[in-house]
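Please go through the protein record below and explain what the tokens say about the fold. Record follows.
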Amino acid sequence: MPRGVVILLGAAAAVVTVAGMYWVSWLLGPLLLALVIVIAVYPIKTWLEGKGWPTWAAVLSLLVVIFGSVLALTAFLAASVSQLGSLLAENSGKAQQLVDSLSAQLTKLGINPAQARATAGSADLSKFADQIGTVFSSVGSILSGLVFILALLLFLTAESGGTARRIGMISKDRPHMITALAGFAHGTRSYLGVTAVFGLIVAVLDTTALAIMGIPLAVLWGVLAFITNFIPNIGFVIGLVPPVLLALLTGGWQLALAVVVVYCVLNLVIQSLIQPRFIGDSVGLSATVTFLALLFWAWILGPLGALLAIPLTLLVKAVLVDADPRAQWVEALLGAEPATPKIKKDKQARQSRRARRHFRISHRPKPADVATPPA
């Protein structure tokens, strides 16, 4: 068929697929989350079986750890949201004072008093606080609704014992697909591991700094910083807003500015300079593709899409690009800056060694230039 027809048919198929994913996001989101979790913990199951554990015991141990972690996180968020609600109720008067002060400052600048009150009212911290509480309540409802996800985890983990046999059957007809899926699993584990380590470091540092500055619920904001570290590009901003607003309510703009400075310093050093160097090799996606993937998956799957944006993009890339040798040219568009090929690096190293050796030989003193010692 003509290339234009192929492009139009492909675009139409892509639109239909995206629309279908959007309408079944209630099923697709938990399924993909369970798949990513199983991929992340599968090496632990293999390690336990290598130590002599029976398969059922290894699966049961993983499920106990996952269920226990989810229940502990749910209980912690429920208690923290209750404390946050009480704290916001105590500081409601300060929030109104801040709004009145902002309205007065806008009026002094020559803005119409009615418009000034409307603008200050739109920046009412109590409204932001209600939105923060709504977000945490939604997170709690998601965690409380993880029974479906945990059921999927149970089935996927129980059937993971036959993964090697399934891969062997597929590799006979689709060897490139197996290689691509193996790369996706390895890249996902590397990404999750590196992100979790740096997220834990950021969470500990943020919690310590907030506790020193006297910000209430410092542990909650540290947990939020850990979770938002899995959201590329904008996760830092999401984790910064709640503690800044709470610092503004309890300590004024000086304390809020101090929180912003501390978070910016930690983000610049750890998340912007150190973490990308470790995570770049495992992801292999450019910054533009990462940002667009975040917007796309957040639109399709909501908060789960934002958390799983990178693994889901790696899965799509593995199925559509890596598994098809004819589509390898797309890698140059999606991936980060291509590295220098190893052959070219070796050639450059040999040329460098040859140049250094030639320099040493050319600057070696000749016998005629050496003075003859007196007899």
